[in-house]
Specification:
By secondary structure, the protein is α+β, with helices and mostly antiparallel strands. 29% of the residues lie in helices and 23% in strands. The chain has helices at residues 13-18, 30-33, 36-41, 59-63, 72-83, 130-146, 150-160, 172-184, 266-271, and strands at 5-6, 93-94, 97-98, 109-111, 116-117, 123-124, 195-208, 213-225, 229-243, 246-249, 274-278.
């Protein structure tokens, strides 16, 4: 589930009155489609073909239909992983500000490099590892949010979700962007005056089923510029499926939401998040 929390002290007070304080994708929000849903409740452990599909491949081929279908046991394991409750450790905010931890955060998660750029400017080419799944989810969210438009968000999910996964209609990312645009009074196609920049700061590997299914969570800080700049934080959890030689958001119900903790706080550490660093 993807949720946005505004900074209580934006650089421009006008932004505080109109910005998106909470782009919450309600029950089973982005978790089902982007982070928690695609990563945890998806039930398709698919063995990808040697040749990656076109960025505009059909949903049926992306889903790995037929031979790519998994057993009921594997599907059940995926759904159980996705649905397992996550600890609610709070936001890490004190008096309206994130209270940064003084604890040792431990070893960071090292994100592999991205050798190529795929459909809609999404960085891709990440390896078939849990870290690769986190990196791909982060890249999908960065591109979707960075489009600052409903058309952009829908285009991204159309090409980066497997069949049975989130769609341009159902994805919680679409709901989040619609809320953002509505709160700022921007038209659905966006505007050059609105800029959204998502920075991946922390990650969490909820679990894996086999080597081609990962429930991954990414925590962001998000800078929203619209007549001024404010910052908020968001966490996205999704079912990530290795398919066609790349990670995509898999089918199934969004995973149970992770704690909406601000990066770098005790709440984030208690929830199991680790800092993200680029290789």
């Amino acid at each position: 589930m993807l949720r946005y929390r505004p900074n209580p002290q934006p650089s421009n007070p006008t932004v505080a009155r109109r910005r998106v304080l909470a782009l919450v994708v309600g029950a089973v929000g982005l978790a089902v489609v982007l982070i928690v849903g695609a990563v945890l409740s998806a039930a398709h452990l698919v063995h990808p073909p040697t040749t990656p599909p076109s960025p505009h491949a059909s949903r049926s081929s992306a889903a790995g239909a037929g031979p790519g279908r998994v057993s009921a046991e594997v599907a059940r394991a995926r759904d159980q992983l996705a649905a397992r409750a996550m600890p609610d450790t709070g936001t890490g905010m004190t008096h309206g500000r994130p209270e940064l931890t003084t604890r040792d955060p431990g070893a960071p998660i090292v994100l592999p490099p991205s050798p190529t750029v795929g459909a809609w400017g999404v960085q891709t080419g990440f390896p078939k590892t849990a870290e690769g799944a986190i990196a791909q989810l982060a890249a999908i969210d960065v591109a979707a949010l960075g489009s600052a438009s409903l058309a952009g968000v829908r285009a991204v999910i159309r090409d980066w979700a497997a069949a049975g996964g989130p769609s341009p209609h159902s994805w919680s990312g679409v709901t989040a962007m619609a809320s953002l645009l509505e709160s700022t009074g921007v038209a659905t196609d966006g505007t050059a005056r609105l800029s959204v920049r998502a920075l991946p700061q922390m990650g969490l590997i909820k679990g894996t089923v086999g080597d081609d299914f990962v429930v991954a969570c990414v925590g962001f800080t998000i800078d929203i510029t619209f007549g001024g700049t404010s910052q908020t934080a968001a966490v996205d959890c999704q079912r990530m499926l290795w398919q066609g030689g790349r990670w995509v958001i898999g089918p199934g119900t969004e995973p149970a939401p992770a704690a909406q903790a601000w990066p770098g706080t005790d709440a984030a550490l208690d929830a199991g998040f680790r800092d993200l660093v680029r290789a």
